[in-house]
Automatic annotation (TrEMBL):
<dbReference type="InterPro" id="IPR015109">
    <property type="entry name" value="Restrct_endonuc_II_EcoRII_C"/>
</dbReference>
<dbReference type="InterPro" id="IPR011335">
    <property type="entry name" value="Restrct_endonuc-II-like"/>
</dbReference>
<dbReference type="GO" id="GO:0003677">
    <property type="term" value="F:DNA binding"/>
</dbReference>
<dbReference type="Pfam" id="PF09019">
    <property type="entry name" value="EcoRII-C"/>
</dbReference>
<dbReference type="GO" id="GO:0009036">
    <property type="term" value="F:type II site-specific deoxyribonuclease activity"/>
</dbReference>
<dbReference type="InterPro" id="IPR038365">
    <property type="entry name" value="EcoRII_C_sf"/>
</dbReference>
<protein>
    <recommendedName>
        <fullName>Restriction endonuclease type II EcoRII C-terminal domain-containing protein</fullName>
    </recommendedName>
</protein>
<feature type="domain" description="Restriction endonuclease type II EcoRII C-terminal">
    <location>
        <begin position="78"/>
        <end position="218"/>
    </location>
</feature>
<dbReference type="GO" id="GO:0009307">
    <property type="term" value="P:DNA restriction-modification system"/>
</dbReference>
Amino acid sequence: MQKIFAKLGLNLKNLDFFIANASQSIHAIRQESFKDLQEQEKQAWEKFFSFCISRTEIQEDPELRNIVLNFCNQFHQDIYEFNLSLTQSRRVKAGKELENIVELIFKACDIPIKKQGIIKEKGVKKIIDLISPSPENYQINPEKVILISCKTTLRERWQEVLEEIRDIQGPQIFLVTLDEKFPDSLLSSFQKFNIQLVVLETVKRNYLTNKCIISLEELLKISRKNYLYWLNYKY
């Protein structure tokens, strides 16, 4: 992800740039990342088919049609399982990808952030996708720490997401997502538990009057202001 970030020249940008262009930056990074993923999957398929062919006794068969039919029949389960593994891998990568992108943007803005931070709630350890400035700051004053959860898409899983994060203490939880539409039931539940949805700027324009939804650019402003509190904090 850092290579893509640098390839697009985003590692040279500052806070002012991302406050104006964070959403566009995420879109550009994901497009470039998807191109890389497609190439990786293409290479994986080529290796898979080469392996399958090497195990058959039909590669020298002059009847191409029979070769193809026999090949597909013989390895249909292998092909299915391999394709399923690629799909599952893509989903996992997509989830971590968004988390990594947000982390890189924060760092480019010189806003401290910790990935997979561990905090304690009533003696129970909880893992948060991203914490700014750090889990240590959370132990000092949880009201002045930015807690971020990243979910590429919510869809029918939003109730599961709600269960994951609603019991965490703090002024609010910021949930970054690339979804574009949200049912009223979701917005109502998230507002009840003080969960702030963070979306791309183009999506925010469709929810201008909804205080439960902010843009990624707004999150950067909030996080920067919050970090200034810690810069002046007397430990």
